[in-house]
Amino acid sequence: MEHKNWHQMSIEDLGASLNVDPQIGLTEAEAEERQQKSGANELSEGKGISPITLFLNQFKDFMVLVLVGATLVSGLLGEYLDAITIIAIILLNGILGFVQEFRAERSLSALKKLSAPTSKVLRNGKVMQIPAKNLVQGDIVMLESGDRVPADIRFVAASNCDVEESALTGESVPVSKHSRIIQQEEIPLGDQKNIGFMGTMVTRGTAKGIVIRTGMDTEMGKIADLIQNTEAQETPLQRRLEQLGKILIVVALVLTVLVVVAGILHGQPAVGMFLAGVSLAVAAIPEGLPAIVTIALALGVQRMIKRKAIVRKLPSVETLGSASVICSDKTGTLTQNKMTVTDVWQGGRHLKVSGEGYSPSGEITYQDQIVDLKSDQSLRRLFQISALCNNAQIEEVPAGDMRNGKKLLEETEWRLKGDPTEGALVTLASKAGVSPQSLSGLYERVQEFPFDSERKLMSVMMKHQGGRLIFTKGAPDVLIQECTYIMWEGKVVPFTGTLRQRVTAAGERMASSALRVLGMAYREVKPEEHVDSEQKAESQLIFVGLAGMIDPPRKEVRDAIATCRRAGIKTVMITGDHSMTAEAIAHQLGILPRDGKVLTGQHLASLSDEELDNEVEQTYVYARVSPEHKLRIVKSLQRKGHVVAMTGDGVNDAPAIKAADIGIAMGITGTDVTKEASALILSDDNFSTIVSAIEEGRNIYENIRKFIRYLLASNVGEILTMFFAMMAGLPLPLLPIQILWVNLVTDGLPAMALGVDQPEKDLMEHKPRSAKENIFARRLGWKIISRGVLIGLCTLGAFWLTLQAAPDSEGQLVKAQSVAFATLVMAQLIHVFDCRSSRSIFHRNPLQNKYLVLAVLSSVILMLIVMYTPQLQPIFKTVPLDLREWALVIVAAGIPTFLLGIGSVWGGRRNRRRLTTGGYTPKNTKFSA
């Protein structure tokens, strides 16, 4: 019974196709029979995952299994504190992951809330109220202002009916509905003006319609199906940490076995070597890594909240840092979501209007000169029509008032009650000093002829100084036909063909700049005239002028997009708006380059996935798109290797937001469905906040790389100290308890302090890293190995030099082990400052990160406690060192960092010198005298 093009059918054909009389409706028996076949009119949530299963799934990760192994080893060694700590880390990570996934599973529940609980239907000739879930195809539904559309319906009657569809189509302005046939075969949802969609809201008027789709067959049902069948993407961070865990466990086990075997072969006791080997294994696997990652992400979340970005899923913070494409909704994100009049045309003059939003502050200028509005009667009339032929209200909310029930306003705000288009006209009039309040004592409304989608006009009759006036506004092409006079240079003159052409040309110029254009007209009503219809009111009018309005771009967004471009991030606009409007905004914001393409939903629907993949790299604007289109765009970009951030506020955005690598919902205008499907919520609905979040994400990832570099280089140094000693046939330079203490002292606080390090200055000047980038990319692996080898060699060198004073003395061996212990700790604590820069220790102020300075001082104090406290010396087998030995420790500990740091600085200067002294000449360089 389904028909693909319900919008093309006449009411008679519709009734025949669905076997129902629109004047009588179905009988109860027919409705019951149809419901048995089609099921209830409700959205299915599919097969859900039980909370217990969801919680247990958190412990399948490879790194978690490694941590479990580390827990068992710590327990066998009697290190119960370590074991308890690791278990706490595992449980914390599991709880965080469970909460995130459980909240994501609620997106379908939020979608179901959009369904109407009850519906007014015509059955057997009687109007009755029934549960909306009992509606069936063919039911006749009655709607009025405030009702939620209970199913997809084809209107058979509509009286001044406006429907708010922004959650589904992205349109910011309510759509005027009608019951006429639409001839085009394939048209976007936003243009199907004779169809109402489940979950949308009637904001004005009344309507009657036939149910054409119910439940999962509705457009809202299709979105529910997309959400169910769209898998959330594993983040790059999760993939990299899993990869890192596998590498670490293999390397740690191989090196540990080599150390144990080498020690036994060189005559070391087997039991002692086994304990040393197990200690090395525990040290080699940075069991604190997941905790430090979690802490770094959590602290990043706190910083992002201050920058108006609320994170719902911790790993998404890092994912933002690798975003290569941002797909952004237009309305409210790139633009202010406040219709604003920017241009006025009156009597051959083109005037510019300044000011933002609904604030009455602004200027009206002609040829850069402020217009004298008091002496200009033509303009005063235009502003009077703007203010009075209008039902919108603009309210001033003073600073300090509550917003959304919780947030205090920092500055005065002007808010709209009513239609955005009418709000723009009230604001225009207020800028001219002609507010509705200032006119209330002079003009009294006696009659209104509401806007109608067929007439495309609205008129009001006003009493004024004992007489009556008709004020009319509407579509210029329609209004011109009803005008016989025009206000020209302060006089009312006949509306000749030449003047009509000039008005039409002015309107077309405004429209070509993506402005929404409205015309204004008026006339005086004769004392004896009886005006009882629109036709009588809207005739013999005097044309006054045109007002052009647009939802203007946010002023800070252009700079944010330029920042993205420098950072190698492509910005794509995806909107339900018309292509001309979208293209104009994209040009203003710098989104659309000269060779960039604009693709409409209609064209996109005709492309195969392969054809779309060929177009997607050069396309920067997608206009008039549907939810399926948005999902296809995201998946196409992902197939091309991009890490995609997708923003949105409506239900229609939820599937694409869930499918994107990073889904971003609007905090102010966003629906609950979108928020539940997202990983990040913008509390100010502002695109520039996304750029701030990307910067934060990049910094967090670089900080994660910093502490991975630090932890692994330190661990490599520990293992190689033991390995080189065993291969050289030397005694153990470090005892098992000393290895565990080094691990505890150096791995904890300094690594966490690196996790909150300040970003480097050129952070947003680099291209996004590839989603496939190895965690050890950009020479990180070389830095870890080179520093680790030097730390191991220098520690062993200090041990050997101390041991040479009395090689066969047991007391000297303890002294040498104490020197090795101190050298290893100090080498790692000096190395931590080197990890702050991608170049060397000399490129950043070592005192800038105060947390790191405090962490290093704390670690030094802990080291000194076990060396100088008599009660602890027997336990840790340490002895105090004299000044000569401390000098050896400091020199040996500083060599790995400062030797390579000096080499890095010297190499950088040599490269710069080579570039500036002719050592390198770019190809095709032309020189002129």
UniProtKB/TrEMBL annotation:
SUPFAM superfamilies to which the protein is assigned, alphabetical: Calcium ATPase, transduction domain A (SSF81653), Calcium ATPase, transmembrane domain M (SSF81665), HAD-like (SSF56784), Metal cation-transporting ATPase, ATP-binding domain N (SSF81660)
Ranges of residues in domain Cation-transporting P-type ATPase N-terminal: 5-79
Cytoplasm is among the record's keywords: no
Keywords: ATP-binding, Cell membrane, Ion transport, Magnesium, Membrane, Nucleotide-binding, Phosphoprotein, Translocase, Transmembrane, Transmembrane helix, Transport
Keyword Protein transport on entry: no
Localisation per UniProt entry: Cell membrane
InterPro entries (UniProt xref): ATPase_P-typ_cation-transptr_C, ATPase_P-typ_cation-transptr_N, ATPase_P-typ_cyto_dom_N, ATPase_P-typ_P_site, ATPase_P-typ_TM_dom_sf, ATPase_P-typ_transduc_dom_A_sf, ATPase_P-type_domA, Cation_transp_ATPase_P-type
Lineage: Bacteria, Bacillati, Bacillota, Bacilli, Bacillales
Transmembrane residue ranges: 59-77, 83-99, 247-267, 273-299, 707-727, 739-759, 780-801, 813-830, 851-870, 886-906
Superkingdom of origin: Bacteria
Protein family according to the UniProt entry: Belongs to the cation transport ATPase (P-type) (TC 3.A.3) family. Type IIA subfamily.
NCBIfam families: ATPase-IIA1_Ca, ATPase_P-type
Membrane topology listed for this record: Multi-pass membrane protein
Protein name from the UniProt record: Calcium-translocating P-type ATPase, SERCA-type
Positions in coiled-coil regions: none
